[in-house]
Amino acid sequence: MAVSEAARKNHEEPRAEVGRAVQEQIVGREGVDKLYASAPPDEAHIQRFLSANCFGDHLARSGIDLRTRELLTFSMLVSLGGCEPQVRGHVAANLNVGNDRARLIDVLTQLLPFIGYPRTLNGLRLVDEVTTRSPNPGCQKTENTMAQRTWLITGVSSGFGRHLTEQLLERGDRVVGTVRDTGKVSDLAEHHPDAFRTEVLDMTDAPAIHALVARAFAELRRIDVIVSNAGYGLFGAAEELTDAQVEHIVATNLLGPIHLVRAALPHLRGQGGGRIVQISSYGGQVAFPGNSLYHATKWGIEGFVESVAQEVASFGIGMTIVEPGGARTEFRYGSAQVATLMPEYEGNPAHAFLRMLDPANGLAPGDPARMATRIIESVDLEPAPLRMVLGSQALESTIATLRTRIAGFEAQTELAASTDYPQGE
After folding, report:
1. Which of 94, 242, 245, 378 is an S-S bond match for 99, by CB 3.0 to 4.6 Å?
2. CATH 1.20.1290.10 placement within the chain
3. Could you read off the pLDDT of 27-66 as tens digits, one per residue?
4. pTM tops 0.70
5. Whether pLDDT at 261 is above 90
6. CATH architecture of 145-410
7. How far apart are CA 315 and CA 127, in angstroms?
8. Is 378 one of the catalytic residues?
9. Of 51, 79, 292, 298, which is the active-site residue?
10. Is there a catalytic annotation at residue 184?
11. Is-catalytic flag, 9?
12. CATH code assigned to 10-131
C-alpha cells in the first residue's frame, strides 16, 4: 500500500531535525548553511531529504573535504540507525582517510544528546569492532601514520617550532602556533590561512597559558598533539646571573611548560587521549659549566614529564621528552642570552660557552629540519617513547655521562647499605 504524503512528511520531519543537528555538530551551523546554499536550484526541494539520509555525492559538490565528508556520513548512519555493515564500512573509510578511533568516539560523544544512548552505544560497539587490534610489544608505527592531526606548538617563530610547523602544514595538518611577534610568521598565515592559526603568548603568563589552551580546545574541538617547545638559553657562571635573569628563565623554561601540560591534560583525557611532546635538550641529562640555570630548567621539566607520563598513560595520553643535541638554530646563534661577564671568571670553564656561540669556530652538527621530521614521526609510535635523543654527538655524550654516573653509584654500594637498619630490626 502506498504511503500517504502526510505520513511520509511526518516521518521525515524528526529525521530532518536530527540530521540537521548532527551536521551542525560536525561542521558547525555556518558550515551547514554553506552546504545547503551550495545546492543547485533544481535540488532545493530535496534539502530535507539530504538532512535525513546519507548524501556523499552532494557533500562532494559542496567542497567539504574528504575527512569531514566521511565523518558526516558515519554520523548520519549511526544517528539514523543505518544497518551495521554500512556503519562498519564507514568506520573503515574514516580510518582510511585519517579520522582515528579517538576522533570517531569524540563525534559520538558530541552526538549523544541528539541521538540517545542506544544508538550511541551501538556506534561505539561498531567502532570498537573495526578499530580494535591486538597490541604489539615495543614501539610500533600505527596504521594511520599520515592521518591529519591538529597540533598546538609553542614558540613557532624560529628553530624547531618553525621547522615543525612548516613540515606539518606542508603535509596537511592543522597547527595552532604561539609566538610573541606575529610578524615573524606572517608568511605562514598567508600561505595557510585555513590550517595555521597564530596566538600571541608569553610563557611566563600562567593565566594566559590556561586561557589559550581552553580556547583552542573549545574552538577546534580536538587537539591531537601538544608540543611544548618555547624556551631559550642563558649562559654565564651562576654568580654572574642576576636575580631577574634567574627568575625569568625558570618561569619560561620550567614553570611555563608545567602550566601548559597541566592545562592540556583535562582536555586530552576528555577526548580519549593524545600526545604531549616536551622539547628538552641532552642538557637535561648532561651538565656543562656556564649553563647552570638552563640545566636546572631542563632537568626539572624532565623529572616533571617522566612523573606525569606515568600518571596519565591509562588515559591514552603519551608523553615524550625530546633531547636534541647542538643544532643550527637561533637558540645557539641568535636568541641565546649571556650574562654580564666577570673578569674573575676569565679562563675559567664557565666561559667555555663563548667559543661554542661563535659560528667562526664551527657550526653545530644537528640539522633542525631532520630533527623536526623525527619528532613528527615519533607521534606515530606506540607506546610513546619516553625519551628521544637527537644527534649522534648528543647520544654519545649522554651515554658516556650516564655510564660515569652509574659507576659512581655502584661504587657507593657499601656506603648506601651502611645507613639502613640492620636486617630484622
Report:
1. 94
2. 10-131
3. 667 766 766 665 555 444 444 434 434 444 444 445 566 6
4. no
5. yes
6. 3-Layer(aba) Sandwich (3.40)
7. 18
8. no
9. 298
10. no
11. no
12. 1.20.1290.10
